[in-house]
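Practice problem 4.
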């Protein structure tokens, strides 16, 4: 089933305890689309500036992402983000952020994308998320991501968005900021009361908590000894999850069981993503690698 995403396309500088990457390709919808493309075709609507390096376009070709909705905007500059991770590889600080084109209007949705049924609103300004969503009144599944910047600076737009989506994906510190609750079970319940049918709270290496109107689930992260750069872990997790849900075998029965399996796929794609800076590791792997690690992960978490 057709999956469409909007979010940020960024030029990132990332510092982690094991190294540093300057001016590499990043952005929420880039990690998301690459991850989802292992499961289903992906359509992207987003803008970059005229400074966007040509060499980064190769990534969209590699993952066969439909870029008919990608605009290189004259006179605008690409979104830029610089972040540094602490020794524990979980906590990070944003050292610099330049919204640039991310603060402007979204490009128009191409006519050929208008039949999209699965929508992912990756991390970007909630007004841009709302603007995309309004164009898909017949969507079957709408899921959004958000972050502290938008919870702090665009609370009203975010509240309006929460009333219109089926699912929200966010991390534990963002859930605390949004609800004031330190207990994630209570925080997730409060978020469901704000509008969505389900919420997935990501907890870094501790995995994720799903609170759905039909039940609750928890999944640990894949135990990895090879963490190079966690950037995009959340977006690639969401991409694996949504890509699986939108795939042909699954998209007709989106019950709690399907969402749990989708979380497992998201967990595995994210575990590959963090093994390199930018999208280098995702570029090396295939769907077979994902399925192999998923089987290994299922053995790790299964008990009698
Ligand atoms: P994640 O590690 O999954 O939270 O995603 C990190 C990616 O999000 C980086 O590649 C950044 O370019 C992008 N990013 C950072 N801050 C923002 C923001 N405020 N809005 C949208 N994207 C952002």
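Answer key:
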């Amino acid at each position: 089933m057709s999956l469409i995403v909007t979010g940020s396309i960024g030029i990132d500088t990332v510092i982690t305890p094991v190294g540093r990457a300057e001016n590499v390709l990043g952005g929420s919808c880039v990690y998301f689309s690459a991850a989802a493309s292992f499961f289903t075709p992906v359509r992207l609507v987003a803008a970059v500036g005229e400074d966007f390096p040509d060499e980064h376009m190769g990534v969209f070709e590699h993952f066969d992402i439909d870029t008919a909705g990608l605009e290189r905007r004259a006179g605008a500059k690409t979104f830029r983000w610089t972040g540094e991770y602490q020794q524990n590889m979980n906590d990070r600080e944003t050292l610099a952020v330049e919204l640039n084109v991310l603060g402007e209007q979204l490009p128009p949705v191409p006519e050929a994308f208008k039949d999209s049924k699965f929508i992912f609103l990756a991390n970007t300004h909630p007004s841009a998320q709302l603007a995309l969503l309004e164009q898909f009144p017949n969507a079957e599944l709408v899921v959004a991501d958000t972050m502290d910047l938008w919870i702090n600076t665009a609370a009203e737009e975010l509240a309006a968005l929460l009333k219109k989506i089926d699912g929200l994906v966010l991390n534990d510190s963002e859930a605390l900021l949004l609800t004031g609750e330190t207990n994630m079970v209570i925080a997730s319940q409060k978020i469901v009361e704000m509008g969505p049918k389900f919420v997935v709270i990501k907890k870094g290496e501790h995995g994720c908590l799903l609170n759905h109107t039909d039940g609750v689930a928890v999944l640990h992260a894949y135990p990895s000894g090879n963490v190079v750069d966690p950037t995009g872990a959340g977006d690639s997790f969401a991409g694996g999850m949504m890509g699986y849900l939108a795939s042909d075998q699954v998209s007709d029965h989106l019950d709690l069981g399907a969402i749990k399996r989708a979380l497992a796929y998201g967990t595995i794609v994210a575990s590959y993503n963090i093994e390199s800076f930018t999208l280098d590791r995702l570029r090396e792997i295939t769907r077979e690698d994902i399925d192999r690690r998923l089987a290994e992960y299922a053995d790790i978490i299964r008990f009698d």
